[in-house]
Amino acid sequence: MKRLLGLWLLSACAAFAVLTGCAGKQPPTAPEPPPPVRTEIPELPETLPDVLLHVPQRVEQAVPLSDSPLLGLAEQVILHERALERFFAPWDLARTSIPAKEAFWGTAAYGTKQGYAENLQPYPRERWDKTVALQDMAFYPSMALPAIATRNTALRVLPSLRPFFLNPDLPGEGFPFDYFQNSALWLGTPVFISHVSRDRAWVYVETAFTSGWVRQEDVALADEPFRKEYRTRVMAAVREDETPLVGAGKYLGQAHIGAIFPLHSHMGQDLVVRVPLRDADGRARTGLAQLGPQQAAPMPLPLTSRT
């Protein structure tokens, strides 16, 4: 019994020593955080100075003007020949190169979209169905005729002059972003007619750069004698927008920069050019218009920083 009591006292003393030893040790303390870095914020002035952008608005102020050619004569002649070959290329077609899927892409692209009309109200479904039907898609292509634009006109995605907008409440939509407008077609542009609308008011044409629907009264059929007379390598380019085409005191039309016409003759410093006109039978004939040196120049015009 004494032996058990002694063992118990020894165990108790040992436990007491462990506890008192642990209690005497201080727990490790976490390292103090580094002092905050003070960032000096510069004081701003009450008003910011105006930002002035000295950007010249005239080309002669931004680029030194020179009459030195930027292209060699031989290279320019080659490019000129290629451009004219491409310009008249629609007259070399025997049939259209535009497949039906490409010609009527607008029907698939916009048929499932909610469109808006010129009054910014939802595009009437009845109007859409009527416009699509005008394309007479089942009979495409129904024509194969060379022709020429006798007015500045619009190439439309579908045969309608009425606009087709997307949601006007969204940025970049609504007026004037008409999704039926494909491109512009200048007076004097050769085209190839491949199809006609059901009401005969529209024709689908292919040009050297795009295709689309135009009003039939804006083009004229180009028979072989006309094409032979009109297709030449001696051309003149219009240098001013809204240039009136006047011959013998008669107004023949209006031309813009980018329009080109066969050069008929020189009259002093002026140029006399051939202008395509539409006769009462819808066929092309030519008239003559006189243009001043600021309005037109023989092609190719020397490529310089001044021109």
What does the model show?
Strand 4 and strand 5 form a beta hairpin. The protein has 307 residues and is of the alpha+beta class. The chain has helices spanning 2-24, 59-62, 73-87, 100-103, 105-110, 125-134, 224-230; strands spanning 145-149, 153-156, 181-185, 190-196, 202-206, 211-215, 219-221, 235-238, 243-247, 250-255, 260-267, 270-278, 284-291, 296-298.
Count of helical regions:
7
Sheet having the most strands:
5 strands, antiparallel
Task: Write down the Rg.
Answer: 39 Å
Q: Cα distance, first to last residue?
A: 126 Å
Report the average pLDDT across residues.
87
What is the highest CATH level, the class of the domain at 92-222? Mainly Beta
Choose one word for the global shape.
Answer: extended
Question: What is the N-to-C order of secondary-structure elements (H for helix, E for strand)?
Answer: HHHHHHEEEEEEEHEEEEEEE
Residues in β-strands, percent: 25-35%
- The largest beta-sheet arranges its strands as 6-5-4-1-7
| CATH 2nd-level architecture of the domain at 92-222 | Roll
Q: Write the CATH homologous superfamily of the domain at 92-222.
A: SH3 Domains
